[in-house]
Design a protein that fits this description.
With 263 residues, the protein is mainly alpha-helical. The chain contains 13 helices and no strands. It has two domains: 188 residues, Serine Threonine Protein Phosphatase 5, Tetratricopeptide repeat (Alpha Horseshoe), CATH 1.25.40.10; 60 residues, no CATH class. 86% of the residues lie in helices and 0% in strands. Helix 4 runs antiparallel to helix 5 and helix 12 packs antiparallel against helix 13. The mean pLDDT is 96.
Length: 263
């Protein structure tokens, strides 16, 4: 409800009760909840301090679940504060904490966040290893949405590294998982990324088919922005394949949607 002042008061009252009772696990949980509220208020430095306090308590008392959660959220907050290296370190700590208690879904999440951070700071080799770790963890766990998201990010990274065959495989895996989950919009994104990888690999007919599938899914979900983006990508693929009439039609469709969306 974004009633932040009342939320802070409630957290502080809970914190006092748990400290009086000596319940260190709940104290750490409340500190992490308080930190999240502060982060949503834009008070990043204060949020970071509370997250660090939660991490210290949970680590010293052996509450690995809370430590993993707090470290992961700390990493996210540090990233927002432009403290990139500290964020990467926090994600590594979350990864380790979850691994120690054999929480494979949590380890997958921390590893995926770590991979994205490493990719964003230009460390692709380390990012690839982190994505592999995330995928291994998710495949031993139960979080299929997390696994699909990891395949999606992995595919984007591999495409940027010009490892086209590996990118195509990753996009196929993401597409299949999103289809099984029933998330048509995310499945559309996977098909779109697959189309881009196939086009760059020179497999133009297959790329056009992938873009058409993405287009169909986006139209089903009413995602007009992505429909326009995919018509534009189709235009490029048709041009590469010397299909001029089809390219012109696709470009016109993209321009029409862009004009409608900007009204």
């Amino acid at each position: 409800m974004r009633r932040f002042d009342e939320a802070i008061t409630a957290h502080q009252q809970s914190l006092t009760r748990y400290q009086e009772d000596g319940d260190r696990e709940q104290e750490a949980r409340v500190l992490a909840g308080l930190a999240k509220t502060l982060r949503e208020m834009g008070r990043l430095d204060d949020a970071i301090d509370e997250y660090r306090h939660a991490v210290d308590i949970s680590h010293s008392t052996g509450y690995g679940e809370v430590e993993g959660w707090a470290c992961n959220d700390l990493g996210f907050t540090l990233w927002e504060a432009q403290r990139r290296n500290e964020a990467i370190y926090a994600y590594r700590r979350a990864q380790t904490a979850y691994r120690k208690i054999d929480n494979r879904n949590g380890e997958g999440l921390a590893s995926r966040n770590l991979a994205k951070a490493l990719s964003d700071v230009g460390r692709p080799r380390e990012a690839i290893e982190a994505y592999r770790g995330a995928l291994a963890a998710y495949q031993e766990g139960t979080d299929r949405i997390g696994e699909a998201s990891a395949w999606h990010g992995y595919g984007i990274l591999l495409l940027g590294e010009r490892r086209l065959d590996d990118a195509i495989e990753a996009d196929h895996r993401a597409q299949a998982l999103w289809r099984d989950i029933g998330d048509r919009d995310s499945e559309g994104h996977a098909w779109h990324n697959l189309g881009l990888a196939l086009r760059r690999a020179g497999r133009l007919k297959a790329a056009i088919a992938a873009y058409r599938r993405a287009l169909d899914l986006y139209q089903q979900t009413g995602n007009r922005t992505s429909v326009g983006r995919t018509w534009n990508a189709l235009s490029v693929a048709f041009t590469d394949d010397n299909c001029r009439a089809e390219a012109q039609h696709a470009q016109q469709q993209a321009k029409t949607l862009l004009a409608e969306n900007n009204r």
